[in-house]
Amino acid sequence: MSDDLLDLAITTAGGRELWSTLVGHYSSRHKTFDGLLVATRRRVFRRTPDNSVNLSLPSITLDIHDVELLRSGNEQAQP
């Protein structure tokens, strides 16, 4: 599966913008854990002044190797 790009600006719960720089979020390497599809790789890149994504150096990298899904006491498992 190809990378998915998600554009967003980070804001606080009060609506204040944390950074004035937009970033591009790329998620990939989707795997299924207990029936739930999870993107196991995420990369966050800063944008350049012309609003393109600078892919030379990720600001944040996240790799998920295992997922354990927990159900609350009131939920029934679905087949």
Provide the descriptors you would attach to this structure in a database record:
single chain; mainly beta; 4-stranded antiparallel β-sheet
Pattern of helices and strands = EEEE
> Spans of 5+ residues with little confidence (pLDDT < 50)?
none
Q: Give the helix tally.
A: 0
- What portion of residues belong to β-strands? 35-45%
N-end to C-end Cα span: 26 Å
Q: What is the number of beta strands?
A: 4
Cα-atom radius of gyration: 16 Å
Helix content: under 10%
Q: Please describe the biggest sheet, giving its number of strands, its sense, and whether it closes into a barrel.
A: 4 strands, antiparallel
Coarse morphology = elongated
- How many structural domains in the coordinates? 1
Strand order of the largest sheet: 1-2-3-4
By oligomeric state, this entry counts as single chain
Structural class: mainly beta
**What is the averaged pLDDT score?**
76
Write the layout of secondary structure elements.
Elements (H helix, E strand, L loop, with lengths): L3 E5 L14 E11 L2 E11 L13 E4 L16
Antiparallel strand pairs: 1-2, 2-3, 3-4
Overall description:
By secondary structure, this protein is mainly beta. The protein has one domain. 0% of the residues lie in helices and 39% in strands. The protein has strands spanning 4-8, 23-33, 36-46, 60-63. The protein is elongated, with a radius of gyration of 16 Å. The two termini are 26 Å apart.
